């Protein structure tokens, strides 16, 4: 945390100081250790200068570059200073400079990282803290980089699979809006004075065209307002939580979402175990990666493990395993290599998820194209239905 102080120097001058410390006592001690007499002290609020809310600190890149410098023989403080000097982003540079400052005070690296929750997740801090106990920071950073690469690879695979369907939906929506807001009103103007018996949906479509023709700005404003409301709702955490719960209840999709979360959970626990963290502490750390319904099950499994029950039995009894995961956990208990077994569970389920995504994409894309074609075709047919009726009456 950063603190602003007003203090008197040994020469009697009043100066404004800016210190970084764990708490107010630490900031006061730093100032008094330099010969100042502290008058006022207050915590400095807000993010670092140059850091805009919503931006992310490049943790993966930072870890990779730090690992290279440490493997080259640079001390930790010098490596952090070097990364800060080459950093162009003001916010990231400020974070690195303050980390170096804390390290120079003799505090652990994990304690320095813990002061910047907007930049470093609790998982990252826990990984570094576990490495400090065994003095293998380089290995821990390597494991974290590998972990991030694996998670990012699966996320990119899911994102790439969603691009084409979203593009189809976007193009289909734009074409439908063009027809409904531009073409249909002009057709309704042509048919306005022709008394012809039309199907109900044609009448509704032409009534829509007349509405747009007479109150176009109001209709467009309502559509824009609806789009803004939807965008704002998707940015809201409660709305996203309700949407996730709704998707979770869909049988096939909910099962795959559960499998994805379990794969990420097992990979995280495996990384923490290989870093030297106790199993129960690792389970607590990985709980945030799970859906609230699974967190309750994990809490029950954790209690059972704390009571001395087998990990495989406790996890399976609370619905946190698959048949493959159960057998690999049992093997890990017998061999004493639970971290590696959890990594293998994650790899197996990642491949299963990838195969399912490929299958679903090949099935969903033609269905989506057919649905969009039906919607656009229905609009066009309903627009031309009055012409067919007029031609039949001649």
Molecular structure report:
The structure is a single chain. The chain has 16 helices and three strands. A hairpin with a 5-residue loop joins strand 1 (2-8) and strand 2 (14-20). Residues 46-54 have low confidence and may be disordered. Helix 7 (137-191) runs antiparallel to helix 11. It has helices spanning 24-33, 59-71, 76-86, 90-104, 109-114, 122-134, 137-191, 200-214, 216-235, 237-249, 251-274, 279-286, 292-306, 311-317, 323-335, 338-393, and strands at 2-8, 14-20, 37-43. Strands 2-1-3 form a three-stranded antiparallel sheet. It has 394 residues and is mainly alpha-helical. The chain folds into two domains: 2-43; 149-394, Type II secretion system (T2SS), domain F (Receptor-associated Protein, Up-down Bundle). It is extended, with a radius of gyration of 30 Å.
Features:
394 residues; three-stranded antiparallel sheet; 16 helices; 5% strand; extended
Describe the SSE topology.
Blueprint: E1 2-8, E2 14-20, H1 24-33, E3 37-43, H2 59-71, H3 76-86, H4 90-104, H5 109-114, H6 122-134, H7 137-191, H8 200-214, H9 216-235, H10 237-249, H11 251-274, H12 279-286, H13 292-306, H14 311-317, H15 323-335, H16 338-393
